Amino acid sequence: MAAAPQIIRVIDLETTGNAPPAHAVCEIGWQDVKLGGDGRWELDGEGGSRLVNPGRPIPPLTMAVHHIRDVDVADAPWWHDVARPILDPWPRRVALAAHRASFEEQFCTSALTRGADWICTYKCALRLWPDSPGFSNQFLRYYRMPEGMEHERGLPVHRAFPDAYVTAHHLRDMLNEASVAQLIEWSKLPGLLPRVRYGPDRGKEWSEIDDDSLDAFLQDRDEDIRYTAQVELERRRGGGPVRAPARQPQLF
After folding, report:
1. What phi-psi label fits residue 40: left (phi over 0), alpha (psi between -120 and 50 degrees) or beta?
2. Domain check: are 100 and 149 in the same one?
3. Where does the Exonuclease domain lie (predicted)?
């Protein structure tokens, strides 16, 4: 029997707001990335998107972001009718992926994904491309200019398919630098920030700040900041580098 194809599905959602149950999905987009016979990952298929009836009005503040109106989704199917075939298709995907995947995971529950692992391209970008001045999906698009991206297919911004299409190019390049297993591992951890986000040390690398400043960040409310400060503390105690490791071998 032939081995199952190695495919990861990138997901992007447009919603009525930040989190369920107060808010719901009004559009889902997807784009697959597949491991080729030459051992390189590439985009696979055309991808797509579906409008979803969120079962509640879309607030004007949210419409101003994605421009999806109540009238556009009035006759669209419900989320539970749309989600499962997209999130758990056949053949089964090795993992799902999204930029800042914790947002998508709130709506794409384990029951809908059949417990699929997620890759967060934001967290992986922090590890693989720490020299980037920014890490949003669109900033990385124009900072890195991924090879082969069709500009118009990545527009308009803040619609589900174009955003998934852009993210898929980031994921493809990440998978050609690090293994699936490594990306999943990084995605399960808090984000490892390459530079200090705020305060007198804003913009500095963590290795450049003094011990008192580092101690203060260990108590920060932001999980990513606390984690990064802890990693830097361990580095100072001889536990290893805070910067991204060397290229990982392909495990999948």
Report:
1. beta
2. yes
3. 7-180
- Picking from 188, 215, 234, the residue at the C-terminal end of a domain is 188
Residue-wise pLDDT for 51-102, tens only, equals 999 999 999 999 999 999 999 999 999 999 999 999 999 999 999 999 999 9
Task: Report the domain count for the chain.
Answer: 2
Of 163, 161, 188, 175, nearest in space to 34 by CA: 175
Cα distance between residue 125 and residue 106, in whole Å: 21
The long-range contacts involving 195-200, CB below 8 angstroms and separated by at least 24 positions, are 197/222, 197/225
- Which token pair is 179? 């293994």
Pairing of the two strands 25-35 and 41-51 = antiparallel
3-state SS of the chain: helix, strand, coil percent to 5?
Answer: 40, 15, 40
Q: Which residues pair with 25 in a beta bridge?
A: 15
Structure tokens, 66? 């994605």
- Check: CB of residue 83 under 8 Å from CB of residue 112: yes
Residue 188: both structure tokens together? 């399960």
pLDDT of residue 3: 75
What range defines the domain where residue 51 resides?
A: 7-188
